[in-house]
Design goal:
Strand order of the largest sheet: 1-2-3-4-5-6-7-8
Structural class: alpha/beta
Distance between the termini: 24 Å
Radius of gyration: 16 Å
Number of strands: 8
Bound molecules: 1,3-dihydroxyacetonephosphate
CATH topology: TIM Barrel
Number of helices: 9
Helix content: 25-40%
Largest sheet: 8 strands, parallel, barrel
């Protein structure tokens, strides 16, 4: 398993359903990894094997994994298949999967356990909708997601948490810096076992706001969607 303690910050590019072979080639020619930070590229799974890990601080991550270990489940990829292909990280419970693919906290829990058993670090995504935020339910929603989706065997060495407010994803909107820091603090304090977890922020991170977000005392890195598709922009964020 990757030793997260070696890195001061963690940056994850989530390409979502974007990219092709020539995009990937160009991206890797231009990508400039900073060795102090852990950089993880989550490409669509069909491209994961083509990602060149030419730097000790650069890793591949899957965007999803099956909740099943093996068997008659057409179209699925298991945690052991990811391990077999040297994939060290995997996103789980992204709000797009929760929204479009009916991924529940229980499924996130099962997927996370399967990944940890195979020495793959799950990046467990949580976040509130705008409606929930407006009703002041953020803390309650996040603590339920944490309680129900993070397995007991998870700890700060083998799992990561990503806080992605649903309303901030792809919208250009972000919480204030104070709000981000405060929510990260709440996440780390909702149970003593989460105190040392690394918590990443995601939602409209770009080169113009990434510094001020990563400098927040409770923020341990960022999960980046749209801005990670522009390699120059991503280089600025991770530098
Ligand atoms: P954007 O950076 O495009 O808002 O997406 C965030 C995200 O969903 C990363 O997982």
């Amino acid at each position: 398993m990757v030793n997260l303690d070696k890195y001061s910050s963690i940056f994850i590019a989530n390409w979502k359903l974007n990219g092709n072979s020539s995009f990937l080639k160009d991206y890797y020619e231009k990508l400039k990894v900073n060795s102090n930070n852990c950089t993880i590229i989550c490409s669509p799974s069909i491209y994961l094997k083509s990602l060149k890990r030419n730097n000790e601080s650069l890793f591949c991550g899957a965007q999803d994994v099956s909740s099943y270990k093996e068997g008659a489940y057409t179209g699925e990829l298991s945690a052991s298949m990811l391990r077999d292909n040297n994939i060290d990280f995997c996103l789980v419970g992204h709000s797009e999967r929760r929204q479009y693919f009916a991924e529940t906290n229980n499924i996130v829990h099962i997927k996370s356990s399967n990944l940890i058993e195979k020495n793959i670090i799950p990046v467990i995504c949580i976040g509130e909708t705008l409606e929930q935020k407006e009703k002041n339910l953020t803390e309650e929603i996040l603590s339920t997601q944490i309680k129900d989706s993070i397995p007991n065997l998870a700890n700060h060495h083998n799992a990561l948490i990503a806080y992605e407010p649903v309303w901030a994803i792809g919208t250009g909107l972000t919480p204030t810096l104070d709000e981000i820091n405060q929510v990260h603090e709440q996440i780390k304090n909702c149970d003593t076992k989460f105190r040392n977890f690394r918590v990443l922020y995601g939602g409209s991170v770009k080169s113009s706001n990434s510094n001020e977000i990563t400098e927040l005392s409770q923020v341990d890195g960022c999960l980046i969607g749209g801005a990670s598709l522009k390699v120059d922009e991503f280089n600025t964020i991770i530098s």
